[in-house]
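During the no-cost extension, the postdoctoral fellow (Dr. R.K.) reprocessed legacy sequence entries with the updated structure-token encoder. One reprocessed record is reproduced below for audit purposes.
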Amino acid sequence: MSELSVKHLLGIKYLKEKDIQLIFETADHFKEVINRSIKKVPSLRDITIANIFFENSTRTKLSFELAEKRLSADVINFSAGQSSVKKGETLIDTVNNILSMKVDMVVMRHPNPGAGIFLSKHVNASIVNAGDGAHEHPTQALLDSYSIRERLGDVAGKKVVIVGDILHSRVALSNIFALKLQGAKVKVCGPKTLMPKHIESLGVEVETNLRKALDWCDVANMLRIQNERLDISYFPTTREYTQQFGVNKALLDSLDKEVVIMHPGPINRGVEITSDVADSKQSIILGQVENGVAIRMAVIYLLASKIK
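Re-encoded structure tokens follow.
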């Protein structure tokens, strides 16, 4: 059996292209499982997984938990808001206390970039990064690429534009790494104030005109403005942002081709996309959510097979 080249999923930049293909092939199998009437498999009956979230999350947390339960793993949910972290406990002490309960794998979301990497060097468990600050969100990028593969047949050679708040987005960075690794062409589009300084060094082009970006692409991945990370004002008003970088049905219908619309959620309807775009047949947003469970099942299953 093929296996992953890594024992943790800390970021896409640590994966090889064959790792991504193995995750996708494994997800194909699990997608068939979760569409059966009996949606569980006993694959990870002996594995205990702790979900440790130091930041708010709805979809990612639910998706991981569902994936773990579909694989019959034992699941511990830990929310930092109701824990001893509030009393000053360190990250390593928190996790070691959880690991002393004989936990095999930790799925962690943390506001600090590199928290998962730090943890992987100090604890004896497999670590899955469920988002670390504005750094990476690897399972989101995997499910996004998987969704493109499902709709368009292959990721290689496809033109993908990522639109919105690139500066604060861990989804954008992980997507750029994943898409480039699979041979896609990538552009980013948004206000200059929301572009990281050296973004071109990642092999992507910057396009500040949304219409031109949509004329070029096969897929548009629409990101929300991360208001919770904006410490200053990066653009005059939300209304002005929407006029320049929001996608509505009239704009889509005026293109001479059908562009696939994606969104990692949560959607700010009427800001980056209108409801009639989000709910249109060009949108694969709900497909992304379904694929998220299959991808996370695949990642957990493949990492668990490396736990000795």
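DSSP finds eleven helices and nine strands in the chain. The longest strand covers residues 126-132. The remaining legacy entries will be reprocessed before the final report is submitted.
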